[in-house]
Amino acid sequence: MSVTTKKKHVERELYEDFSLPQEHQSIVRVLKPCGNNLHQVTTADGDVFLASMPHKFRKHVWIKRGDYVVTEPIPEGNKVRAEIVRILMKDHIRHIIANNMWPATFSGQCDEEKDKLCNVPQEISGSKDSLSDSDNDDLMKNPNRPRVVPDSDSESSEASDCDDIEGSDCDNNEDSGT
Q1: N or C: where does the chain have the smaller number of CB atoms within 10 Å of the terminal CB?
Q2: Which stretches of 41-151 are DSSP H helices?
Q3: What's the CA dihedral at 80, 84, 90, 94 to 10 degrees?
Q4: What is the pLDDT of residues 73-126, one digit of tens each?
């Protein structure tokens, strides 16, 4: 199987699989990456341990601090006690909350952007284009773009244009009196 085909199947599984966690699986929150595809995670009970990222997700999917994943326990593991089975996206979290399988302790630990998901699971956001004006006001101005200052007087802008251009028709109009 080629790399592109493998990536396509992993992405399809990641975005389209809305199965609920089974009895032996648990939902955990990622605390921090520890290197070598290991992540420190915490359960709803507060138990902290390492979980390994399987080979199929490596270089295809990245997870960060605060993300939620579904893990399966590794029976022979001492330090690494679980393996990541699925990475939960916003839609997956909504689906799990709607089916009352979301751990109650994680509901209070949501980030600002995930806070809406935990408190109102029925509300499904619209498209990304439907941002309100207040969201646009919070955006930082791009310092790499020149500021465009609107001209209040169009005549003064024409005069300044003539002063800046050498050998233009403006110079000829001024010299025509001699």
Answers
A1: C
A2: 90-98, 104-107, 112-119, 133-137
A3: -100
A4: 999 978 899 999 999 999 999 999 999 999 998 886 554 444 444 443 343 344
